[in-house]
Amino acid sequence: MTDFRMDDAGLFLQRQLEYIRPQVFETAYADIKYPTILPVTSEAGPGAQQFTYRVMDSTGSFAFIADNADDLPRSDVSQIEKSIYFRSIGGSFGYTVQELRAAQMANVALEARRGAAVRRAYEEKVEDIAMFGDTSTNLTGFFNNPTVDVVTADKWFDTSTITTAEMLELLNYGSTAIVNASQMKEQPDTLLLPWVDYQRVTSTRNSDSSDLTVLEYFLRTNPYIRNVEPILQLDNSKSTSRLSTRRMVFYKRDPEKLQLHIPQPLELFPPQQRNLQFIVPAHARVGGVAIYYPKSVVYVQKSA
Fold it and tell me: Which of 93, 98, 195, 214 has CB 3.0 to 4.6 Å from 114, enough for a Cys bridge?
């Protein structure tokens, strides 16, 4: 006979989880990029099934008119209504009865690495959805969004004959394209670069007589871009075939322009007994990226 009861094990695990949870949720991962490159919102709430938004555009002008004019120029607003549907994602971690017995009898805390592993798996899944969406559930990502214009460059940073002036022209092209196409209504402030190209522009001097790199000179002279981030997955060889070639992303990092919807961030449920182990379910809901003003974003990519 033993004085160890299964309900005691569950109670012990529940108390331990009170200590494990803060460690799980306070951990930050430097290589997880979506929180720094996208505005994240949970405004829809965990019970929402979908989120409907309007893609807006306005047209119109003023003109000189006669006192009795009846042909006044007309201003109007056009809009397209779109919906994104939220999907659940989940995982779990657990401990065997023997592990709980040993920890309880020795009066030691359960190791928290399994909870951290679930948090890591959640962050990696959300990162993948944020960047590339998910075709099986019709979730849209940020790096391959069908509403965004794509421009193909005739030269790239790894072209053997490219000059620093041409590198600067390539870096400036995306922001200029957005500003010109929108009649200055859209002004991007962020540039995302493939990691290998980021290395090139941060290690190449702008000229033989300058100590500034190409990227430093670009940031000093471009009137719009204030943030440049290296992104590994913008290299097609690192995108698991979601991109056909390397690309840059120019955009305004503003929740009025685009948002990543996570109506229910990661949550851990009470442990559940399954045979000789206790399982801690983990759950979240995601909706992908909604781009409210597609003309505020542009992709500039390398020719295939």
Answer: 93
- CA angle in degrees (0–180, nearest 5) for 76-294-44: 95
Mean pLDDT over 142-162 rounds to 94
d(CA 117, CA 20): 12
Q: What angle do CA 129, 269, 265 make, to 5 degrees?
A: 30
CB-CB contact of 201 with 156 (8 Å): no
Tell me the H-state helices in the chain.
Answer: 6-26, 34-37, 97-106, 113-132, 164-181, 195-203, 214-221
Among 116-130, 213-227, 256-270, 271-285, the range scoring the smallest mean pLDDT is: 271-285
pLDDT of 3 higher than 50: no
- The answer to whether 127 and 34 are in contact (CB under 8 A) is yes
Q: Torsions phi, psi of 209, nearest 5?
A: -100, 10
- Secondary structure (DSSP) of 131-146: HH-BTTTTB--STT-T
Q: Which residues contact 79 (CB under 8 A, 6 or more apart)?
A: 54, 55, 56, 57
- Higher pLDDT: 72 or 88? It is 88
Tokens linked to 156: 């790239």
Query: Among 8-17, 52-61, 109-118, whose mean pLDDT is lowest?
Result: 52-61
CA distances from 182 to 173, 178, 293 (A): 14, 6, 11
- Residues forming beta bridges with residue 190, ordered by sequence position: 227, 251
